[in-house]
Amino acid sequence: MGPFYHIGSYIYMLKALFVRPERISMYWKETFRQMVDIGVGSLLIVAIISFFIGAVSTVQFAYNLQDSLIPMMYVGYVVKESMILEFAPTISCLILAGKVGSNISSELGSMRLSEQIDALEIMGVYTKAYLIGPKILAAITMIPLLVIISAAIGIYGGMIAGILSGYVLRTDYIQGVLSFFDAFGVFVMLLKSVTFGFLLTSISCYQGYNAYGGALEIGKASTRAVVISSIMVLFADYILAWILL
Amino acid sequence: MIEISNIHKSFGKQQVLKGIDSVFHKGKTNLIIGKSGSGKTVLIKCIVGLLRPEQGSVKYDGQEFLTMTVNEKKEIRKQIGMLFQGNALFDSMTVEENIRFPLDMFTKQSMSEKVDRVNEVLAKVQLKDTNHKFPSEISGGMQKRVGIARAIVLNPKYLFCDEPNSGLDPKTAMLIDDLIREITQEYNITTVINTHDMNSVVRIGDNILYLYQGEKNWQGDNEQLFYTDNQDLTDFIFASEFLQEAKEFRLQNWKNRKA
Ligand SMILES: Nc1ncnc2c1ncn2[C@@H]1O[C@H](COP(=O)(O)OP(=O)(O)O)[C@@H](O)[C@H]1O
Ligand SMILES: [Mg+2]
């Protein structure tokens, strides 16, 4: 079936999320569980990766500034700006597309194959709303938080690398970070992370929810989830940059 | 009572069901039998609305199900319990949470009322001290019982079981059959069971529908089964020599009694 079929049924799936829940407390409980899963579950990997991205940016930028007249405090400034505008939201969400995306799609895929989704359907539960809604809600609240943490750790990692390599003084770096505070940049970061979070969870849910066949299919569905979400995250990044900047 | 008529279902070019008619009675264990791949699961899924047949009608106590709106269907579904072939227990939840789930979702009972009800159905299916175990920590037979408990916790009027004793040893399979039959009679439920287990057919076949090549080939009860001259059915049921001999022995007795 062609891409138009999938786009159509993806939109149909999103529409099916807007129903009156059978029991709102059950939906909250599930949302909370997903928030813990997505948030706490991804904290470590996001932290590690952000630290190194900050570190690498610092070393590379400082190396380029060597022997120039530009003061080293600009390293702090540039690392902050690039973490906030691009690295924190985009790279974190690409990592999350891999981790959370494959998680979600294999969870839903195995629920589909083991007929757990059918069992919910038979009970009279709105399965799309109950299984997908809480995941999306959890993602669009937790992913921005993760991205904020990512930016902070990236900036911190940059400072450590600057000090260790001897290129940048701690005070210079901090001065650079604190100068030219740009609220719009932070807004862009949050907007990106909400958008990317929404895309990567909804796409992964679509793949998992509609999996059928055998165990092999679950694997294929999660691969598709990761690939398509990553592409869509980058595509949305491009569109947002185009609109906003 | 559930009445189905003229159910047609195909996947692509493959016609799985070619116009099935049947009636499933209240308080009885109604069996759908047929070799594997004959469309038993597809038929059950058409009846409960997990699959949409291209043609046909499904009536729950006279109400046409297939043309209902989503919300009307939800109301019927609250009266349906279903036991799936692989149990379909929620693996992130404990036994108690699994069984409590329909209560959590659809009733306003207090926690203690719900837990009491869970323990009541657990006692009904003869499971004790498993409340806080996860499905992966209990045996296949116990998982079946949990599946049954979850299916009946809301006092359904209709119970569907897809191969309830697949993957169980013969003794456990028999206990599960007896349990389903006992529940059916005690609560006067319309129960529909898919099976290809000849033991079940003979023990609990109150009303048997035989599917063959997408059609209803035969319908009757477990007595009539022995005296039928339908060759397809006989070949299917009495496939083994052992069963063939059992059948002949029984027929002989019957003739002697008549003589
Ligand atoms: N979702 C589906 N898509 C395509 N074919 C299916 C689907 N479900 C069942 N079938 C086909 O329908 C036939 C009957 O399957 P099924 O009802 O599961 O048999 P059984 O009697 O063993 O329960 C099989 O040939 C199966 O391949
Ligand atoms: Mg089957």
| Mean pLDDT metric of chain A | 94
Q: How many alpha or pi helices of chain B?
A: 10
Helix fraction of chain A?
A: over 70%
Rg of chain A, Cα atoms, Å:
21 Å
Task: Summarize it.
By secondary structure, chain A is an all-alpha fold. Chain A has eight helices and no strands. In chain B, 38% of the residues are buried.
What this model shows, in words?
The complex is a heterodimer of chains A (245) and B (259). Chain A is mainly alpha-helical. Chain A has one domain. Helices cover 85% and strands 0% of the residues of chain A. Chain A contains eight helices and no strands. Chain A has helices at 3-15, 24-65, 73-113, 116-123, 127-165, 170-178, 183-209, 215-244. In chain A, 44% of the residues are buried. The mean pLDDT of chain A is 94. Chain B has helices spanning 40-48, 70-77, 95-106, 111-124, 140-152, 170-187, 198-204, 224-227, 231-237, 241-258; strands spanning 2-11, 14-24, 29-33, 55-60, 63-64, 80-83, 158-162, 190-195, 207-212, 215-220. Chain B is built from ten helices and ten strands. In chain B, strands 6-7-8-3-9-10 form a six-stranded mixed β-sheet, with helices on both faces. Chain B has a four-stranded antiparallel β-sheet with strand order 2-1-4-5, covered by helices on one side. Chain B is an alpha/beta fold and 259 residues long. The relative contact order of chain B is 0.16. Chain B has one domain (2-226): P-loop containing nucleotide triphosphate hydrolases (Rossmann fold, 3-Layer(aba) Sandwich). Bound molecules: adenosine-5'-diphosphate and magnesium ion. Residues 40-41, 85, 162-163, 194 of chain B line the site of magnesium ion.
